[in-house]
């Protein structure tokens, strides 16, 4: 069982930055592919970014590529999402998720953290 707790959301102006973190419980964190998703009001949840178990491979949605950076620290059981050049359309609840199957399915989800970008 893995518990995920996100932090770092908030209100920021267009063009600003935020850094989200997701702390995981348990001693098996390094065996999971980790990802960030987001869900805006009235929209379906969408994939944002994914990082491999070692942290060496990352993948981004086109909408955030070049602006967001996903990383992980396996010693701290934590995954991060650095968000720069934020836009109003980035406003959403952001969720971290853990996959035992390299991203095909996600087994554990956090409770989410709200990010609001004002114009």
Overview of this protein structure:
The protein has strands at residues 4-7, 10-13, 18-24, 33-39, 46-51, 58-60, 68-73, 78-83, 92-99, 108-109, 113-118. With 119 residues, it is mainly β. The termini are far apart. Strand 4 and strand 5 (46-51) form a beta hairpin. It is built from no helices and 11 strands. The strands form 2 sheets. Strands 2, 4, 5, 6, 9, 10 and 11 form a 7-stranded mixed beta sheet that branches.
Features:
seven-stranded mixed β-sheet; four-stranded antiparallel β-sheet; mainly beta; 119 residues
Q: Which spans have pLDDT < 50 for at least 5 consecutive residues?
A: none
Rounded to the nearest angstrom, the radius of gyration is 13 Å
The coarse overall form would be globular
Mean pLDDT: 96
Task: Report the portion of residues in β strands.
Answer: over 45%
Largest sheet geometry: 7 strands, mixed
Give helix and strand order, one letter per element, not per position. Answer: EEEEEEEEEEE
Assign a percent range to the helix content.
Answer: under 10%
The count of DSSP E runs of length 2 or more, i.e. the number of strands, is 11
Oligomeric grouping of the chains: single chain
Number of helical segments?
A: 0
* Cα distance spanning the termini: 40 Å
Which structural class should the secondary elements be placed in?
Answer: mainly beta
